């Protein structure tokens, strides 16, 4: 199962990076957001799950809350209008952006999901908090982009999936993608870890009883 997750994550990553999202539709903010969410919220957790079975010891990066803060800086930083414009105009900037999205995503999901040699319950709680914190900041950014009174990323119309969108529509669609993919996936991950903690506590109490 883990090998399947790893393969699926890598295939998805290749489709995102070498498909039309970052080439044909690179001027569309909605296409950018599909690529962004695909990397950090879908491909990264799949790869992290598969990585756990690789035999590679990566316990030195088992720091979920730090990973969440790093992802916050990466995500908010690359959505500054000046950096967004740079990415649209530069292949080098696009590569740098996507590499940082993947690195931050893998760091967070791996740190949150991997077993810990320390108190496993405390580590799971830290992982749950980190994923929930990420869900909160992505919800906030998505809401700010959706409710912005003017487009932040250009004024020209763009084409995405054959649809012609003006700048405001493009930004609002991108914001909705962030809210319904990114925020929801991280929320689900955090809730799943909390559920695992409660299940372990219940099991321990039954064993003692």
Number of domains: 1
* Biggest β-sheet: strands ordered side by side in the sheet: 1-2
Mean pLDDT: 89
What is the overall silhouette? globular
- How far is the first residue's CA from the last residue's CA? 34 Å
Task: Give the fraction of residues assigned to helices.
Answer: over 70%
Uncertain stretches: none
Structural class: mainly alpha
Could you tell me the strand content as a percent range? under 5%
Topology order in helix (H) and strand (E) letters: HHHHHHEEH
Describe the structure in brief.
With 209 residues, this protein is mainly α. The chain has helices spanning 2-18, 29-51, 64-78, 81-89, 91-113, 120-147, 167-208, and strands at residues 158-160, 163-165. The protein starts with a helix and ends with a helix.
List key phrases describing it.
mainly alpha; two-stranded antiparallel ribbon; 3% strand; 209 residues; 75% helix
Sequence-ordered SSE layout with sheet pairings:
Elements: H1 2-18, H2 29-51, H3 64-78, H4 81-89, H5 91-113, H6 120-147, E1 158-160, E2 163-165, H7 167-208
Antiparallel strand pairs: 1-2
Helix pairs in contact: 1-2, 2-5, 2-7, 3-5, 3-6, 4-5, 5-6, 6-7
